[in-house]
Amino acid sequence: MKIAIGSDHRGYHLKEKLANILRTKGHEVTDEGTLATEAVDYPDFAEIVAKNVSEGAVDRGILICGTGIGMAITANKFPGVRAAACTDEITAEISRRHNDLNVLCLSADMLSPRNVERMVEIWIKTDFEGGRHQRRVDKILKIESEIDG
Question: Span 2-148: which CATH code?
Answer without folding.
Answer: 3.40.1400.10
